[in-house]
Amino acid sequence: MQSYQKLLLENKAWAKEKVAEDPEYFQRLAHLQTPEFLWIGCSDSRVPANEITGTQPGEIFVHRNVANLVINNDVNLLSVLEYAVNHLKVRHVIVCGHYGCGGVKAALTNHDFKALLNMWLRSIKDVYRIHRTELDKIKDEEQKTNRLVELNVQEQIFNLAKTSIIQRAWKNEMRPHLHGWVYGLRDGIIKPVCEMSAGTPIDPLYEYDDL
Ligand SMILES: [Zn+2]
């Protein structure tokens, strides 16, 4: 059997098990999704949003990319954010990075990963530049990477707050709250690293006054 065929087989078994536990399960989910959370996480296969938070399908709206970045001209990310905030009315947006992130590690090197990946990883180098004084002091490479993982998450939270999508929702509905988390691959524990409640003042440079 091919490896991908096993996935289809496992899927059948999973669906059967769900129906056995709760015969209405799929009918209910097919009609409605009312997730309270938007999750912006890393594409890394070891950080599945639902599994590590003990949540079920329907509970978390998910967007993932390499190194969980919030890039201000990423149409994909912004569409997800707009839909989650304005249509699904999520109450919390979580950016969840993870220690040992390959994308962050790659950005710490001077290796040429070719145009596309260089472009994507560039913004992580920018995070390093902003926090250079602190990061240059850390001699241990692993510790340095992990601190950059935390600072990267924090920067993505700021990037969310810079969007008119978030600012408008804060002004009109005092939601969503923004949470920066980092997941530990070694112990499975999520560490909260920063938080911006709805309405938190931001750098006036990025504030829209005519929302
Ligand atoms: Zn990663």
Question: What do you see in this structure?
Answer:
This protein has 211 residues and is α/β, with parallel strands linked by helices. It contains nine helices and five strands. It has helices at 3-21, 25-31, 49-53, 75-87, 102-107, 115-130, 132-136, 141-161, 164-173; strands at 37-42, 60-65, 92-98, 177-183, 190-196. The chain has a five-stranded mixed beta sheet with strand order 2-1-3-4-5, with helices on one face. The longest helix has 21 residues, at 141-161. The radius of gyration is 19 Å and the shape is globular. The mean pLDDT is 97. The chain binds zinc ion (ZN). Zinc ion is lined by residues 42, 44, 67, 98, 101-103.
Major β-sheet strand ordering? 2-1-3-4-5
Number of helices: 9
- Radius of gyration (CA) equals 19 Å
Low-confidence stretches: none
Helix vs. strand class: alpha/beta
What is the β-strand count?
5
Report the major sheet.
5 strands, mixed
Shape descriptor? globular
Distance between the termini: 56 Å
Q: Give the names of the bound compounds.
A: zinc ion
SSE run: HHEHEHEHHHHHEE
| Beta-strand residue fraction | 15-25%
Fraction of residues in H or I helices:
40-55%
Mean of pLDDT: 97
